[in-house]
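Risk mitigation, structural track. In case the binding assays with 3,4-dihydroxybenzoic acid fail to produce interpretable data, a predicted complex structure has been prepared as a fallback.
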Amino acid sequence: MKRMLLAGAALLAVAALPAKAEDTVKVGMIISLSGQFADTGTQMLNGAKLYVKQHGDVAGKKIEIIAKDVGGINPPVAKRLAQELVTRDKVQFLGGFVLTPNALAVAPVATQAKVPTIIMNAATSIITTKSPYIARVSFTLSQVAAPLAEWAAKNKINHVYTLVSDYGPGNDAEATFKKVFTAHGGEIVGSVKVPLKNPDFSPFIQRIKDAKPEAVFVFVPAGEASVGFMKAFAERGLNKAGIKLIATGDLTDDDVLTAMGEPALGVISTHHYSAAHESPENTAFKKAYADVAGAGVRPNFMAVGGWDGMHLIYDTVKKLGGNIDGDKAMAFITSGVTIQSPRGTIAIDPTTRDVVQDVYVRKVQKVGGQLYNVEFDKVAKVKDPGKS
Ligand code: DHB
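Fallback model:
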């Protein structure tokens, strides 16, 4: 009996041995798993985990995700985590990045260590210019704000007030919206930038109400800020005053849309992904995602960014036969790659390493009793206008 137990223990020990380093490709993910942006990081990680679960080993390698919680906007911590992942954990890829300031802080590490770094959300245009080892599979604020400005001008909205979070993505969203909207004959009647961390929107929203614009254009980062904005917008009665709400899809993020409730109905937004996107790929993605994230959790654009980012990493590992070299990896990533995403086909621009994709115009509507961003128009193959 004792011998049998021992033999059993030995077997267990063998089974639990970690895969040998040379059999593994490590991907270090820097994301927020606590604080204001915890849900965004969790969605992104679940998207990446799902891809690994669905695809297993590639080129004889196990793909291992090492997730690090940066705890919100924290560039020095992001940089330290990247350095540790590279030097101690010996990751061959970096990925994740919900937030622009954290991505920017990691760019010098990516360059110095020659580690391919895949941006799965952070959406300020300049990020990809900060290191030749950075590529982006998500979107840029300029890429989605330009089609929205055009849509507004073409749909008889003439006077707009802008409200954005006061940091990189907000600055890009405001600048591009203004440029394109005024070029199409629209007028900006006022602009305000609100603090990024836990803002009280009420005083800003009252100011907008008093200015009586036809519409307010909004960018706030997805999650708690978008819920807070929508609450204040309804409480101050802007919708009842007939002021339309137009926004980048960060405001009507699939993860929090249900929590926003009725005030979100009718919001027009532009973005790269909606859970309501109709395609066989998205139907399969949503079904599989529920197995990883839990039933009833709707994948949002962070989850899709995680899944697509991991897809690009798998394709790169496959192309390199499992032997990862930073320069060879970037040569592949800039060779005109395309990816079948749940949002549609995306491409990586060989020159800018930024994503090229269809941008959808959507309206919040009830589908089967639940709020969704229902796509009703699209602009095909949009490049980041921030680069030209
Ligand atoms: C960024 C963060 C977000 O939460 C979002 O919705 C869009 C952009 C960013 O920091 O780049």
